Amino acid sequence: MDSLKNRTLLKVIVLGDSGVGKTSLMNQYVYKRFNRQYKATIGADFVTKELHIEAKSVTLQIWDTAGQERFQSLGSAFYRGADCCVLVYDVNNLKSFETLNNWHMEFLKQANPMDPETFPFVLIGNKTDVDGGNTRVVSDKRAVEWCASKGNIPYYETSAKEDINVDEAFLGVAHKALSNERKQDNIYFKDISASVTEMLEEQPRGCAC
Ligand code: GDP
Ligand code: MG
């Protein structure tokens, strides 16, 4: 068992329009399974994944949301202490790309990070598999430009269905989150880390289905 000193809990919030594949990405990443059925996530919940980065035992605590307007009722406590925010859109759905600005703004408003200019975001363009790419409406160039306009957000394209690039995307998220955790004296994280670590040992998974 790692000592607590070498363990790090990183809180990751996943945001984006309903139906873009947030829950599917998390399920593929953590449980290596894909479910064709669409079940709207109710409220918010998290899944966890243990990683080893630079001799550190890292627990990614990945929070899923309903993705609908009502998510706002989750309030700032839900966002507080986040080490990284993952924004997800569907490359076949223009509206889900256009609303990224709103999700980005909403996160910064609610989480209120110490340095909003450098807070780590990651963008994921999901569902690259659909119809062999023929229904795609957002080019990677356009997505990369959006990322550049927000201060060089890393960008990954994935298929949760075919398990393409999912591990790579979340590894990128873990590195981003770790860099933020090192930079900030995150009081919320420090307060809850011990109790959450205990909780995770007893009950290793939250269900986001
Ligand atoms: P959420 O509302 O953002 O959590 O979206 P879900 O994960 O529930 O996915 C919405 C729908 O899109 C479901 O029917 C999924 O099976 C489907 N889906 C999710 N990811 C992919 C993908 O990469 N490719 C394809 N073809 N379908 C996907
Ligand atoms: Mg969902």
Automatic annotation (TrEMBL):
Its main location: membrane. GO terms for cellular component: endomembrane system; vacuolar membrane. Belongs to the small GTPase superfamily. Rab family. This is Ras-related protein rab7. PANTHER family: RAB FAMILY, RAS-RELATED PROTEIN RABG2. Keywords: GTP-binding, Lipoprotein, Membrane, Methylation, Nucleotide-binding, Prenylation, Protein transport, Transport. It comes from Arabis alpina (Alpine rock-cress). It comes from the Eukaryota. NCBIfam families: small_GTP. CDD domains: Rab7.
